[in-house]
Design brief:
The protein is built from 5 helices and 27 strands. By secondary structure, the chain is mostly beta strands. It has a 23-stranded mixed sheet that branches. The chain has one domain: Single-stranded right-handed beta-helix, Pectin lyase-like (Pectate Lyase C-like), CATH 2.160.20. The structure holds 2-acetamido-2-deoxy-beta-D-glucopyranose (NAG). 2-acetamido-2-deoxy-beta-D-glucopyranose binds next to loops. It is found in: Secreted. It comes from Aspergillus saccharolyticus JOP 1030-1. It catalyses: Eliminative cleavage of (1->4)-alpha-D-galacturonan methyl ester to give oligosaccharides with 4-deoxy-6-O-methyl-alpha-D-galact-4-enuronosyl groups at their non-reducing ends. Keywords: Carbohydrate metabolism, Cell wall biogenesis/degradation, Disulfide bond, Lyase, Polysaccharide degradation, Secreted, Signal.
Length: 373
């Protein structure tokens, strides 16, 4: 872009009163993330340029003002997959990634699957980046974002990540972290994803804040064959501290979230609406403090059969918390089986200056996601 054209573009954005910098500051474990800091904003205009800005070694503020559609950019693959939940039109099929279909053996009929290659692996995001969308214009379609291999200090705000092979399990994840630190994801909308909306892999993800995001689980294809997405938020790790607050989880049916393997989760002020299966699955090594959350029309708030972690959570305010974190814990609303009295969780988080939640509410239905900064 010529200098004059850049000036015109920036002036146009300024005129509309639209941000070309990060709005607000992170709360929770990633509070010290600064992303691209005060680097001059760049506005990519092609998928190639976006990939280059995200993956290079410069600190960058990357402003999105258009849709980046990766569908078709890497071709398609036709292969034999399987149908673990049957072949009815509302059911997800599965790509046989790493022989995953073997888990189902004879119970899952083989089927032909044709998927978009771009969806199966996200765009690499390097350290010291802010990725921000203007209004509701910044959309990444057909490919997710991947923060792995030791990256740190990344802010992603006010974008949408959509349409990643939604027909197929293993079709792709929206937001992946694995061996990362200081990542803040805020006001992001994810919709129509093949696998996970958010996945933190088995390596340490250290300090992460996932705030005010809209996890839209409504899909034509689902593992529960009922238009409710099953694969939503998978928090694995080896030394992870995750703040998850202000998020809206709509039309999900499982793993919302699944937490395990030395992962601490402070989960507060979120709103779940219309979940046809389970919300929480807490495995061994999952340490969860859940407070000020609101559950509405959720079939099973906590999967009790597989519960092997540590949980502090209640539908009543608890003064037990005061001696550990200096304040009472805030009551959840309609938490059902999500009750726990583990003071291990509280004592392990005692030095972390946890944010203080508001009362549980349905506010995230209108305040979460892209366009609601
Ligand atoms: C990120 O920025 C910090 C502070 O300027 C710098 O020390 C670090 O090397 C940068 N990281 C990368 C991978 O560029």
């Amino acid at each position: 872009m010529k200098y004059a054209a850049i000036l015109t573009a920036v002036a146009a954005l300024a005129q509309q009163g639209l941000a070309t910098s990060v709005s607000g500051t992170p709360v929770g474990f990633a509070a010290s993330a600064t992303g691209g800091g005060s680097a001059a904003a760049v506005t990519p205009t092609s998928t190639t340029e976006l990939v280059s800005y995200l993956g290079d070694d410069e600190a960058r503020v990357i402003v999105l003002t258009q849709t980046f559609d990766f569908t078709g950019t890497e071709g398609t693959t036709t292969a034999t997959g399987c149908a673990p939940w049957g072949t009815a039109s509302g059911c997800q099929l599965a790509i046989n990634a790493d022989d995953w279909c073997d888990n189902y053996e004879s119970s899952a009929p083989s089927v032909s699957v044709t998927y978009d290659n771009a969806g199966t692996l996200g765009i690499t995001v390097n350290s010291n980046k802010s990725l921000i969308g203007v209004g509701t214009s910044g959309v990444i379609k057909g490919k997710g974002l991947r923060m792995v291999s030791g990256v740190s200090n990344i802010i992603i705000q006010n974008i949408a990540v959509t349409d990643i092979n939604p027909e197929y399990v293993w079709g792709g994840d929206a937001i992946t972290l694995d061996d990362a630190d200081l990542v803040w994801i805020d006001h992001v909308t994810t919709a129509r994803i093949g696998r996970q909306h958010y996945v933190l892999g088995t390596s340490a993800d250290n300090r992460v804040s996932i705030t005010n995001n809209y996890i839209d689980g409504e899909s034509e294809y689902s593992a529960t064959c009922d238009n409710h997405h099953y694969w939503n938020v998978y928090l694995d790790g080896s030394s992870d501290k995750v703040t998850f607050s202000g998020n809206y989880l709509y039309k999900t049916s499982g793993r919302a979230p699944k937490v395990q393997d030395n992962t601490y989760l402070h989960i507060y002020n979120n709103y779940w609406n219309d979940n046809s299966g389970h919300a929480f699955e807490i495995g061994s090594g999952g340490y969860v403090l859940a407070e000020g959350n609101y559950f509405e029309d959720v079939d099973t708030v906590l999967e009790t059969d597989s519960f092997e972690g540590a949980l502090f959570s209640s539908d009543s305010a608890s003064s037990t918390c005061s001696s550990y974190i200096g304040r009472s814990c805030v009551a959840n609303t309609n938490g059902g089986d999500l009750t726990g009295t583990s003071t291990t969780v509280l004592s392990d988080l005692a030095d972390d200056s946890l944010p203080t939640p508001s009362a549980a509410s349905t506010d995230p239905a209108t305040s979460a996601g892209q366009g609601n900064l």
